[in-house]
Amino acid sequence: MNNNFNETMKFEPPKENVNEARDIILTVYEALEEKGYNPINQMIGYILSGDPTYITSYNNARSLIRKLERDELIEELLKYYLKNEKNEK
Which family does it belong to (predicted)? Predict the structure, then answer.
């Protein structure tokens, strides 16, 4: 670990299966919606806590979302948001 607090560390997540995170997020969203949950609230609960019980096991959604690290989910969501915000300006 870098103990020099005057330097910015560079974070580079693994770049395997570029569309995997996107596909998983969409599949989990649909499963939560089909079961009557608020997908946004449930996914936020999972991302913040790491507790997989926020995600339904319907359509294998819980197993799918656990294939990704939570930082990968945040990265995908942030990239999508910023890309769309840039295009609207």
Answer: Belongs to the UPF0297 family.
